[in-house]
Write a structure and sequence with these properties.
The chain is α+β, with helices and mostly antiparallel strands and 247 residues long. The protein is 47% helix and 14% strand. The chain has a six-stranded mixed sheet with strand order 1-3-2-4-5-6, with helices on both faces. Helix 4 crosses helix 7 and helix 8 crosses helix 10.
C-alpha cells in the first residue's frame, strides 16, 4: 500500500477493498455491483477510487482550514459542505455555466450542437484505466457511509480547478440527476467521475436534454471528446455508464 492510498483510506475512515496491480477489470466491477446491491440494504454507497497523489492532495486541500484532522473534524467539514450543496440552485448553476462558455467562445465561430447520432449502450466503466489501457496500480472500493449517493463528491473531494465544478456543486448536480435518472457516482479519479445510471434515457429528445446539461457540467467531454452535443446524446441512449473528464 502506498502512502497516497493510506492517506485516502485514513481520510475516508470506512470499510474498503484494495486491488493492487489488478489486471482483471471484471473482477473489480463485479465486486462493485455486488456491493452496490448490498449497500442499498445496509445504508452505504460503494465507490471505486483510482488512487493517485493528486487525489490525496485534493483530500488534504479539502481539510486545510481545519485545526486538527480528527474524524470528528472531517465529519463536520463534510456536513457543512453537504449543507452548502443543498443551497445551490441547479438551474442557476447551468445558466452560469452557459454564460461562462459563451464568454470563452464569444470571438469564435463555434457551434457544437451537431446532429443526433450514435448507438449508445455504454455499460462498462473505464475511468480507472490509464492512457495505455492498463488498470491503475491501486484501486479502492470504499463503502461510503451514506445512503445518499449524490453526497460522494463531498466524501471524496476533487475538482474546483479550471472548469471542474467544486465538490458542493458536483453534489448539487448529482442530486438532481439522481432524482431524475437514478444516476449516482460510481468511480472517481483526480480528474474523472463516472456514474451508474439505473434509468437510462431511451429517446432522442431526452438524450439531447441530458447531453446539453452534461455539456454545461463538463464541456471537455464534448470539446475534447465527442466534438458535438448531438453525438454525446446518441451515446447516452440505453447507456448505464456516464463519463466526465476535466482537462
Amino acid at each position: 500500500m502506498t502512502s497516497n492510498c493510506k492517506q485516502i483510506i485514513d481520510f475516508l475512515g470506512c470499510e474498503y477493498i484494495l486491488f493492487e496491480n489488478e489486471t482483471d477489470l471484471k473482477k473489480i466491477t463485479d465486486k462493485y455491483s455486488e456491493l452496490r446491491e448490498k449497500g442499498k440494504k445496509e445504508g452505504f454507497t460503494p465507490l471505486m477510487i483510482a488512487v493517485s497523489d493528486n487525489l490525496a492532495e485534493m483530500a488534504e486541500f479539502f481539510c486545510e482550514e481545519l485545526d486538527e484532522l480528527t474524524p470528528e473534524a472531517i465529519a463536520k467539514r463534510r456536513e457543512e459542505t453537504v449543507k452548502q450543496s443543498l443551497e445551490i440552485n441547479v438551474n442557476d448553476f447551468f445558466l452560469r455555466a452557459k454564460d461562462e462558455l459563451a464568454e470563452i467562445f464569444e470571438d469564435e465561430d463555434y457551434d457544437n450542437a451537431g446532429e443526433f447520432e450514435g448507438e449508445g449502450g455504454i455499460n462498462t466503466f473505464s475511468g480507472f484505466c490509464s492512457y495505455d489501457g492498463k488498470l491503475e496500480k491501486e484501486i479502492l472500493i470504499a463503502n461510503i457511509p451514506t445512503d445518499k449517493p449524490w453526497e460522494l463528491p463531498i466524501y471524496v473531494p476533487m475538482g474546483g480547478f479550471n472548469s471542474c465544478p467544486s465538490p458542493e456543486e458536483q453534489a448539487a448536480v448529482f442530486k438532481y440527476w439522481y432524482e431524475k435518472y437514478g444516476a449516482y457516482p460510481a468511480c472517481v479519479t483526480y480528474d474523472i467521475w463516472e456514474m451508474f445510471c439505473e434509468r437510462p434515457v431511451k429517446d432522442e429528445k431526452s438524450a439531447l436534454e441530458l447531453a446539453n446539461e452534461m455539456y454545461l457540467f463538463c464541456n471537455d467531454i464534448v470539446d475534447q471528446g465527442t466534438e458535438t452535443i448531438g453525438r454525446l446524446a446518441g451515446s447516452l441512449v440505453n447507456s448505464s455508464v456516464w463519463f466526465f473528464w476535466w482537462d
